[in-house]
Amino acid sequence: MENNSLEKPLILEERPPKTTPVNAALTFAWRALLRIRYIPEQLFDVTAFPIIFLLMFTYLFGGAISGSTGEYLNFVLPGILVMTVSMITMYTGLDLNKDIEKGVFDRFRSLPIWQPAVLVGALLVDVVRYSLASTIMITLGYILGFRAEAGFIGVILAVLVILFFSFSLSWVWTILGIIVRSEKALMAISMMLLFPLTFLSSVFVDPSTMPNWLQRFVEINPITFVVDASRGLIHGYDVTSELLTITYISLGLIAVFGTLTMYFFRNKE
Amino acid sequence: MNQSNRTYAVEADQLVKAFGKERAVDGISLKVPKGIVYGFLRPNGAGKTTMIRMLATLLKPTEGQATVMGHDLIKEADEVRRSISLTGQFASVDEELSGRENLVFIGRLVGFSRKEAKERADDLLAAFNLQHAAKRQVKKYSGGMRRRIDIAASIVISPELLFLDKPTAGLDPRSRNEVWDIIRALVRKGTTVFLTTQYLEEADQLADLIGVIDRGVLIAEGTSEELKSSIGIRSLIIEFENEKDLDETASIFTKMFTQAPEVDRTHLSLSVTMKDQSKAAKAIG
């Protein structure tokens, strides 16, 4: 290496101005998109998951629960949509956990940037991923005979509600991503939380068919509210109270888990 | 800003970092003048990395305080981050992205426009002899290339103080020399470098001031010559914080060298003359 050519770029006389929080977050989002380009398998969860889930549950339960798969599809699609997107929120935590393990996280934390940008950027790209999953599932649903009574607008509104809730739910995984030490343990914990949360809800069956004690849990499960609201929006009945509850829950999740995440982020040892 | 802020890159006062009961850094005070290479020398697990992580705002000190480039480590963490950069086993780059993408990414984060960030990335890649691998994913880099891209990523905006954790660990001699050249060039341009190393030779070659750290405590400090001569002329002078430590060490040394060391109670120091060099090395090691 020639010293002359080496030394020239070493010292910059001018420093650029500090970047804005929005720019920092967008830059992190750009990084996440670049990574998808290198590892397209990362999209497996948002492409294959929805297809498998929809086909599997429609044809597995359809006959038994509704007497016909066609009718069941109309009932179950909004539910599976919520379930799938809620489940893939956990990958947010897994990605973050990997960054920490690899050491990139330490570089980010030592940069003079608005620190939450690391997480906000990742979550922005996740919202894109959730939208992709939703689009795939709804398209497949239409091919299989699904019809939304409230039309296309209803579907869009339902997806927006799901995206908002999922974004809020993601903050639970960011905490776990920071504090849990191995990817395997994180996966196990996430599954342990997500399976009961998604299955013990109104995703697959009408809660009135369940035993009383279970109904009580299902009725307070946030997933149930999101599923009911999506169903209502898609099939055209009034779900104002559900929407209000979801707004409270989501803002609550962001306030509590967002704050905790930032606390752990700053004090990570 | 007072006088000392202008002279010292790092001023640490009794820094302590405890993880539960274990005190990884147990009261280290040090002053690093600006413009030099300061080297922490010791085998692994002596608290070097913890000390650097604290000074780079990644860990909060349990006790004590420090200023880095004149900024309070805790109260002005953001200002500290603006003047430092770190590279090493911990602060790394994204292995999935190419070398160039990593540099552009960091350039964008520190405030460059897209065009400036790209120009800066290309300049650095050229300077670090990595143009040919610019578009290759970092995970496919060799050890030496990997370390060079790590350092390049740390100087996208020129830091006033650069932390390097074990910069040449595991490198072949040629790559090691390349990294040394980079460090020397940075120092010539006015960057202060604070590095840790397990290699005596590296500390000797690069560091203007060497701190020897053991079990979280700074046990010796000086230039390479000073440290060598303290072993060479077979006499060792140690200063203590309190009389209890002084007495304890004096009794250990009496056993080791079958001769009582000279104890100076007014300066809380002790000096021993040693006939056996290997014992002397063992005593300060």
TrEMBL record, chain A:
InterPro entries: ABC2_TM, ABC2_TM_bact-type, ABC_2_transport, Nod_factor_ABC_transporter. One of its GO terms (cellular component) is ATP-binding cassette (ABC) transporter complex. Keywords: Cell membrane, Membrane, Transmembrane, Transmembrane helix, Transport. The keyword Metal-binding does not apply. The keyword Coiled coil does not apply. It is a multi-pass membrane protein. Residues 41-268 form the ABC transmembrane type-2 domain. Its main location: membrane. One of its GO terms (molecular function) is ABC-type transporter activity. It is found in: Cell membrane; Membrane. The chain crosses the membrane at residues 43-66, 72-96, 117-144, 150-173, 185-205, 246-265. It holds the Pfam family ABC2_membrane. PANTHER family: NODULATION PROTEIN J (PTHR43229:SF2). Belongs to the ABC-2 integral membrane protein family. This is Transport permease protein.
From TrEMBL, chain B:
It is found in: Cell membrane. InterPro entries: AAA+_ATPase (IPR003593), ABC_transporter-like_ATP-bd (IPR003439), ABC_transporter-like_CS (IPR017871), ABC_transporter_ATP-binding (IPR050763), DrrA (IPR005894), P-loop_NTPase (IPR027417). It is a peripheral membrane protein. SUPFAM superfamilies: P-loop containing nucleoside triphosphate hydrolases (SSF52540). GO terms for molecular function: ATP binding; ATP hydrolysis activity. Keywords: ATP-binding, Cell membrane, Membrane, Nucleotide-binding, Translocase, Transport. GO terms for biological process: daunorubicin transport; doxorubicin transport. One of its GO terms (cellular component) is plasma membrane. PROSITE patterns: ABC_TRANSPORTER_1, ABC_TRANSPORTER_2. Residues 10-240 form the ABC transporter domain. Pfam families: ABC_tran (PF00005). Belongs to the ABC transporter superfamily. Drug exporter-1 (DrugE1) (TC 3.A.1.105) family. This is ABC-2 type transport system ATP-binding protein. It comes from Salimicrobium flavidum.
